[in-house]
Design brief:
Structural class: alpha+beta
Number of domains: 1
Helix content: 25-40%
Strand order of the largest sheet: 1-3-2
Number of strands: 3
Oligomer: single chain
Order of helices and strands: EHHEE
Strand content: 25-35%
Largest sheet: 3 strands, antiparallel
Length: 71
């Protein structure tokens, strides 16, 4: 099991504006930085034998993602 926490975009949508601003700030430091989209993370997980099991909305517009090994 892998648990990740933080701001994430969902299907190309990043909300609220504070997350959009944070993402811009990260990208200004390095173009490889930034908030990741759950859709893209699912693709990486699938290629590495994992799948997304649960998404929990958390305070301050963050999310907890629970990943498990595919069986």
């Amino acid at each position: 099991m892998l648990i990740t926490y933080g701001p994430f975009a969902l299907n190309g949508v990043l909300e609220p504006e504070s997350s959009v601003s944070f993402n811009s700030s990260l990208k200004s430091m390095d173009k490889e930085y930034g908030i990741r989209d759950i859709r893209d993370l699912q693709s990486v997980a699938e290629n590495n034998g994992m799948k997304l099991k649960e998404i929990y909305d958390m305070p301050s517009n963050n999310k907890t993602l629970v990943w498990v090994r595919k069986q």
